[in-house]
Description:
This protein is mostly beta strands. Helices cover 4% and strands 43% of the residues.
Amino acid sequence: MAFDLNTIYTLLALALRGLSYVGRVRAGYETTFTCTSNCIPGCTYTWLLKGRTFNGSELTWTPDGLDRIVELQCTAVNTESGSSKGITTILEVKSSVSVRPSPQLPLPVLNQSFSLDCDGSFPGLPVIWYKDGQVVAPDARINLLEHNTSLHFNYLLPSDGGFYQCEVTMANMAESKVISLGYLLNLSVALAQCCLGGNTSLPAR
């Protein structure tokens, strides 16, 4: 229900005692921040978030999971005197979406099959895979399984090494998108073991 998807953070004493609040917000879910002050006769408010400015005493933000630590600033300006003061809070973004090796194939080995699972995805909702920031295109060797929630390699090549992430659609009213925590597929150790005496032949294509 909607009230489960909203968290209210209040930045107090914006006339202004320099209070900052360190809190957690959830990737993919809406969070509302409120700036208050004891301005007389009143204040206008400006927010600064990730290089963008927003006006008003409230700011609603849905993190996409790309940033784990975010700085949020609110500045109050007295409408009569023009004096201003700002307050800053550091937000830690919590994400429930991650990329992990499949339990059935936990260790990457060159020339062997391997799978990555997108944990935290929702059945029937879109999942997109990325390697080093680029969309992964399935082919005869790389397959998307289980409604795209699993990325399966029939056999691993050195070129498969890289940083993998998945983008999921959340099961909320906004159907917001979230980028997962990533997984670094490092094949350098496997390659060294291979070439020091293992079988270097590739599977038949």
